[in-house]
Protein 1
Amino acid sequence: MIKQSLLVLLTALASTQALASAKCEEHPEAERLHPLEMQKKIVNEYGFAIKKFQNSGNCYEIYGWGLNDDKSKYVQIEVYFDTKTGAIVKKEIED
């Protein structure tokens, strides 16, 4: 029973990680935007509200809020950004 539960848990975690991650290009530390500069860009240029900001592998990642695709309401988002350019690499919207 414990082995089955552990297997189910590990499978669920692996599936979550596979869906959540993004593949960002690796940049040397000297070429990366400073985290505070990146956060300003996210708020001022993209209009996202940041709940959590983190370095996720080769990406900057946020959890927060932004407008949905038709710009009719704010929704929870998870967004990955290139650490050098600040470009969006992957965006997931939760309705």
Protein 2
Amino acid sequence: MSPVVPLPVTAADRSSCAATGVPDVLRLVGEKWSVLILVVLRDGGPSGFNRLHRAVEGLSRRILTRTLRGLEENGLVSRRAADSHVEYAITALGASLLPLIIAVGEWAVEHEPAITDARARYRSRLR
């Protein structure tokens, strides 16, 4: 397997990676609200802001707004102004990302016992 980055990782390597926007996308899809909104839009179809707000308990309007803007900026969600409201929909790009995110979630569920054990061993070493 070829390395993702050359070793050692230099400041120039980090800078060139940051210039691609990859870190921003990874940060966005790592947020729990982004994933939930993508799933809601995939499963429930295009939705207005208020419907999205009601669909995810505990999600503030401010965070929903910020999350939708990030998803739209990165092409994962589209925004369409209708007569009296705005409608959001998952894009083909967003739909193509979801299986990867879901796979990571499934991996985490499958390996939860091993992760829990590793955390316990780590914490016991700190005491």
Protein 3
Amino acid sequence: MAADDDATVRAAVRDVLEADGRFEVVGLAGSGYELLALTNRHEPDLVLVDLRMEGGGVDGVRAVATLPGPRTLPAVVALSAQTAPSVVVETLRAGAVGYLAKGRSGSGLPDVLARIAAGDVVIAVPSASTVLAHLLITRTAESAAD
């Protein structure tokens, strides 16, 4: 499942993934609202979400990552031009298991998504080391408070 408000990006993602053969794209959504409806209907294993679209963003990631019901939740991956460490950290805390900067993944997208589907966490943004440091520092501070 892929969600982006740009139809050209949606089509490109679909074409790249389906050409790879390891993926079946069960739906394309142009908004976060459409993404939730399609996710409920198709119960995909993996959801690729643009952060800048109506009904999307971090709240859209959180909504997909915490869908109620007797189902296996999909692995949620953010695909965004927004790479500020604060946005990446917030998105990961909302339930994303991957964060990919638009324009950096290109033809390697299927390999990265296959790693995520297999259980890896991938943070492919220029600020990844800052994001990881922030997450570790925050986690250490939370553990010390307990």
Protein 4
Amino acid sequence: MVDIPSLISMLLIFCARVTDVSLGTFRILQLVRGRRMAAALIGFFEVMLYMVVLGHILGGGRVLRPLELIAYCLGYATGNYVGSYLEDRLMKGYTLVEAMAPCDEHSLEVIKKLREGGFGTTVIQGEGKTGPRYVIKIICNRKDIPEINRILDNIAFVSVFDVKSCFGGYFRMKRK
């Protein structure tokens, strides 16, 4: 038979673990979306909860002092941030930028600027809520997204997708 304090302890451990794993899942989603600071902050609290519960479960062992716990949590949070930063900077990744723009002369000028900037740009005509739209598709390196966004100059609704692999077609060459 389980006594009441043990039952309460198990219930608290269960709830803490559900919260810890939920935070971990949410943290991963933030990392995938490139929200490093949010992921680092969530990771800080995720690992703090984990360490407190682990200390409770193991009991009898040396309990981390508050500053040690904070140092451990900050290391974990910073690791999330740095790992995401390194992945973003070191991994060569392709991205599909898809922009829905009005069918007008200004959009055609923007498409021309994209192509003059060296970006392979495919244009498809589609139909939006308010009429015809250009669907502008650009596969590029991730690092080119800010420049493409600058050229698009808020004329379009833009979606960005990770591309697992691609071959053929036209890719912008590095400028020397």
